[in-house]
Amino acid sequence: MNASATAGVTRAEYCVIACAEAWRGDGEVLAAPMGVIPAVGARLARLTFAPELLLTDGEATIVGPDGETEGWLPYRRHLTLVTGGRRHVMMGASQIDRFGNQNISCIGDWAQPARQLLGVRGAPVNTLNNPVSYWIPRHSRRVFVERVDMVCGVGHDRAVAAGPSATRFHRVARVVSDLGVFDFGTPDRSMRLVSVHPGVTVDQVRAATGFPLTAPADVPYTRDPTPAELALIREVIDPAGTRDREVRP
After folding, report:
1. Tens of pLDDT, residue by residue, the chain (249 residues)
2. Are 126 and 91 in contact (CB under 8 A)?
């Protein structure tokens, strides 16, 4: 396992870097981060390696990394971006399985759930029409499960089973948790460990995952932030340190 080169970087800051990397190479698409660390990551990407990225205030305004208004994005235009594949959303997940099926609706039998959550919301449309990544701030077997109780976001296996109309624009790009980074670059499109954050071992990740996890023989650490990126995170984007509330230092 390759060693980290930067001392003093917090776990939350590694998570910011990992989330930012989800938008690398996307071009002029709308970034839709859900959560503090994905939002910091999207702004960092825009300020560094992804200047074409579009950010919003979560309502109807396109904004710059500093929050200043850059344009108007009415709801109908937003939906055009979604259905046309020109948005990359980073959602959360109450449950996610090895093929990337996501649940944010309920825990237990959907007919009589033990716990009601957000509901399906826009997850099916997101996953079938534009790139989707996931952010999991607390990696555990309760979240990374063998089988989700209800499918909201569509994973690779179910998209293939549904046929070409479902797979045409389907792309679950990556999963970032407080332990590491994952993708679906395996022959059967099941989840693969790409990197662990410094201080985390592969055994820790496996122990916190409720299904067999593919991993290379030598799993690298999540890349270090550059000094410039670290300065942007700490001094410009999130000087109040809200990222540390989502992932403990």
Report:
1. 555 546 699 999 999 999 999 999 999 999 999 999 999 999 999 999 999 999 987 777 888 888 788 888 877 777 777 777 788 999 999 999 999 999 999 999 888 889 988 888 888 888 988 899 999 999 999 999 999 999 999 999 999 999 998 888 889 999 999 999 999 999 999 999 999 999 999 999 999 999 999 999 999 999 999 999 999 999 999 999 999 999 977
2. yes
Q: What pTM value is reported for the model?
A: 0.92
| Token representation of residue 204 | 């820790």
Coarse DSSP helix, strand, coil percentages of the chain, rounded to the nearest 5 percent: 30, 20, 50
Q: Count Cα atoms within 13 angstroms, Cβ side, for 22.
A: 37
